[in-house]
Amino acid sequence: MNVTDVIAHILAEEGVEHLIGFPSNPLFDDNAAEEAGIRPIVVRQERVGAHMLDGIARVTSGEQVEAFACQHGPGTENSIGGVAQAYAESAPFVALPAGYSRSKTNSDPKFSSLINYQHVTKTTEQLTDPDAVEETLRRAFQAARTGRQRPSLVEIPKDVFREEVDGVDYTPTSSTRPAPDPHTIPEIADALLGAERPVINAGQGVHYAKAWEPLRELAELLEAPVATTLNGKSAFPEDHPLSLGAGSKSEPRALNHFLESADVVFGIGCSFTKTAYGITVPEDKTVIHATLDAGDINKDVDADYGVVGDAKLTLEALCDELRDRLSGDSRGRFDEVAAEIEDVHQEWLKDWQPKLTSDETPINPYRVVYELNRVLDKDSVIATADAGNARDFMAPFFEVTEPLSYVGWGKTTQLGYGLGLMMGAKLARPEKTCVHVMGDGAIGMVGMDFETAVREDIPVLEIVLNNFEMASYDTPFSGHYADHAEALGGYGERVSDPDNVAEAIQRGVEKNDEGTPVLLEFLTSKETELSRPDLA
C-alpha cells in the first residue's frame, strides 16, 4: 500500500464519512477516499469546504470528525481562513493538505502549512516519514476529539503520498470527558443558592456536552433566567419562561435588563471572551465560570469561582447538590421571575412590531426575519445568519426551541461563512430544513458555491437580503441573485412585495423537500436600527 491508501483506510476507521476540499490532492485524484467508502465533495473555494466540515461538527455536537484535503501551495493559502474560523469556533476536523515535495518544502517563498497553520490549529505536523503515517494521524484525530475540540492538521509532502509502506494496523481514537473537582461543587452551590438574582449564561460547551437537560434542570431548580452566547443559541429553549435569548451585537431587551440587575452570573460552557458579539458582564457581579478550557478562566473576566470540566458532568453534579439541599422545595420565585421576563419581552416586541410586520417597500429585512420565524417548523429547522446585519436582524428575533437548531458563532467571522455551515449541516442532518440568511457582501464571497449544493444534491435554503449595498458601509453592490441561482441549476426567486414573503419561504421549503437547493432573494431597505443592549 502507498501512503495515500493508508490515509484513506485510517479515515474510514475513524468514521469519516466525507472528504471535503479541492484537488489536486491524491486523496481526491487517485479516488483513494471513494474506494475506502468515503464520499468526496469538491467545492468551488477551499474555505467553503472547511466551513462545511465546521457545520457537520457543530450539528453533531463535535462527534462527527470529518476530513479536509486540498492542493499544496495555493490550495493551502486559500484554506487558511476556513480553518482559522473553525479554530475560533472550536469545531473539530482533520485537515490533510498536500505540501511541496520534501526537497523543496523549505525553499522560500513556498507556503508551508507546518509553519503557517500553527496558530489556527490545535496541532500541526508534517508527515515526512511514511512509516509514521499511523501514529501521526492518530495524534491528529485524538487532539481534534479531546478536550476543547478544534481542527488538527497534517501536511503531507507530494512525494510522501506515493511512498510504499508495509500494510496498516490502525486502532481508532476515542475522546474523554473531564469531570469537575468535586470539592468545588458545594462552594458553587452555596453561591448560587445565596444569590437573589442569579443569571445563567450558557455557551457552546453545553451543545458539545449534550447538556441541554441538566441546564434546564439547573435553571428550574434555581428559578433563574438563562441567556446563551450566540454559539450557544438553542442550548436552552427560547420559548421557555426563563429564557432571555442570545447575547450578541443585537439581542432581546430582557437579557441586558436581567444582566444589569444580577448579583451572580454563572457561565457554563462559555469562554466569557470580551467581544462585540457576546454578553458583557457588568462590574461588581459575583462570577462563576465553568468551562472545559482552563485557559479561559480569568482570561477576560475575573472569576470568583472557577471550575474546569465537561459541561454535562458539571451541571449534573450541581443539580445533584442542589436537589439534595432543596429537598424538592421551590424557591418560590419562578412565577415572579417568569412574569418579569415576559413583561420586558412583550414591551420590547411591541416597540419592534412596526418593523417586524412592516408593509413598506423595499421590504424591511425585519419583515423577512419575522416571516421566517413564523413560517418555519422549529422542530425541523437548522438556521444560521451570516456576518454583519444579517446576524443582527436574526439573532434576537428568530426564536429557536430545539437543541442544535441554530449554528451561531462569536468573536470574528468571515462573510459567506453560513453557506458552508448549512451545507455541512444538511449533510449531517438531511431530514432538517437548513436555512442561511445573508446579505450582498456574503453572497459575493461564496455565491459560486451554490453550484456545489446543486452538484452534490445538498438542498439548502439560502435567503439573500439584497439592499444593493454592503450593510451600512454605503458601498454599492448590484446583482440578480435569483437568476444566478437558476443559472447554476437551483431554484431562484426574487421577491419585492412584503405580502409575498411568507409564501416564497413556504415554496422554498417545498422545493428543498423535493431535493432542490433554493435561493430566495428579497429586495430590502437599508435598515440600520438594531436591538442594542445599551439602547434596549
UniProtKB/TrEMBL annotation:
Biological process (GO), any one: sulfur compound biosynthetic process
CDD domains in the record: TPP_PYR_POX_like
Keyword Nucleotide-binding assigned: no
Record keywords, A-Z: Thiamine pyrophosphate
Domain Thiamine pyrophosphate enzyme central: 187-318
GO cellular component, one term: acetolactate synthase complex
Domain of life: Archaea
Domain Thiamine pyrophosphate enzyme N-terminal TPP-binding: from-to ranges: 1-106
Names of required cofactors: thiamine diphosphate
Domain Thiamine pyrophosphate enzyme TPP-binding intervals: 386-521
GO molecular function: acetolactate synthase activity; flavin adenine dinucleotide binding; magnesium ion binding; thiamine pyrophosphate binding
Record flagged with keyword Transcription regulation: no
Family (UniProt): Belongs to the TPP enzyme family.
Name the UniProt record assigns to this protein: Thiamine pyrophosphate-requiring protein
Organism listed in the record: Natrialba chahannaoensis JCM 10990
